[in-house]
Automatic annotation (TrEMBL), chain A:
Protein family per UniProt: Belongs to the 3-oxoacid CoA-transferase subunit B family.
Organism of provenance: Anaerobacillus arseniciselenatis
Domain of life, per lineage: Bacteria
UniProt-listed InterPro entries: 3-oxoacid_CoA-transf_B, CoA_trans_fam_I, NagB/RpiA_transferase-like
Record keywords: Transferase
GO MF term list: CoA-transferase activity
PANTHER family, per database record: ACETATE COA-TRANSFERASE SUBUNIT ALPHA, KETOACID-COENZYME A TRANSFERASE
Annotated protein name in UniProt: Acyl CoA:acetate/3-ketoacid CoA transferase subunit beta
One Pfam family this sequence matches: CoA_trans
From TrEMBL, chain B:
SUPFAM superfamilies in UniProt: NagB/RpiA/CoA transferase-like (SSF100950)
Keyword Transferase in annotation: yes
One Gene Ontology term of the molecular function aspect: CoA-transferase activity
Keyword Transferase recorded: yes
Superkingdom to which the source organism belongs: Bacteria
InterPro entries (alphabetical): 3-oxoacid_CoA-transf_A, CoA_trans_fam_I, NagB/RpiA_transferase-like
Keyword field: Transferase
Native species: Anaerobacillus arseniciselenatis
Pfam families: CoA_trans
Name of the protein this chain belongs to: Acyl CoA:acetate/3-ketoacid CoA transferase subunit alpha
Amino acid sequence: MGMGINVRERIAKRAAAEITDRMTVNLGIGIPTLVANYVPDSMKVMFHAENGILGTGPSPENGDEDANLCNAGGFPITVIPGASYFDSATAFGIIRRGLVDVTILGALEVSERGDLANWIIPGKKVPGVGGAIELAQKSKKVIVLMNHISKNGSPKILKTCNLPLTAPQCVDLIITDMAVFEVGARGLVLLEVMVPYTKEDVDKYTGAEFAVSENLKTI
Amino acid sequence: MKVCTVDEALDFIKDGTTLMYGGFGGVGNPPTLIDGMLKKRVTNLILIGNDAGFPDIGIGKIISQGGAKRLIASHIGSNPVAGQLMSDGKLEVEFSPQGTLVERIRSGGMGLGGVLVDVGIDSILAKNKETVEIDGKRFLIEPALTADVAIVYAKKADTYGNLVYDKSARNTNPLVAMAGQVTIAEVEEIVEVGELDPDEIVTPGVFIDKVIKTQGVDWKWVWE
């Protein structure tokens, strides 16, 4: 179940549907970065970067890159009208104050209660936490984009996370290459199944119980 | 006289110095000071900054070449060499959440003892940290960070050390600029006092001890 370009784009497009006009949005690195491509130009969305920008725009044309204008991942960007630059402390003030409407990030594991684990695999990988805790704990809505199962085939949506948590009960929506789940007060609700997968596939590859929406869609 | 040569500035940075650096993913790291430290082969540094850069970019070069014994940062994901050194026990790393780290630096620069933060209070990063309750809410006590020397990058300085930054290369620089016992600013352009509009100055020159003119970035960016 490798994630081809089309699958990445499909997940990004589905996530973009969660963004509405006038929102303040933070996109993590990887697939979340692609989400901006699917937000219609007619919407006024302020994309936030942890290094200190509100109002980032598309990548510049080749040759127009400015090393002093990069996103939090260190890649060149542009800014839109109304954008502002500030120091990183202010960038995190915006997050801690709850002014980010939607944050879209990747995950290693998500539990049925919406616990998020995405920063450390003890004994194996310690890349460090970056701004993930602030974003997960403080954003109004947290959307996780990830592969439905790990590289070795085990479910990433679990009853309880095995890895240390980034933040407990913070995830609101999970979008994978197989399905879309809402995390509600009573647990997971399956909203959508992505073709070519079926509800049976989702049952098989999800490590937690879930309810099925009355309006279950195939997309 | 604050304006000085690179060598005069480097005299402040010695083996074992606690060195705080501005920059975020290499952007806004001061390239000429970093290059000078490499040439001088400074070792056993205790580094404090947002991240470990990339292996051949910014502060990452110092870390990859074994110049640091300890690093306080929010992540090292972009520098696999740093990760390897950490696994091999050659680099001690302390992680703070990114927003908490900059507040620790800012509080150091502002002359405070630390900050109260609820970020990560339910995570393993809260282990062994003191907490305090205010109005029924629990907060972690996150101690301030300061350094023997702070190095920052800016677009312009006047000879008093007032600093103006450039777009996202501002990032952690204004915070780091306040937190050094000695702060060295590496800048693209040095102008006379009076040439900067007081309204555009982000870091007041009183925080700055030395100013050097940059020789520019000598590394290739990841996107090049």
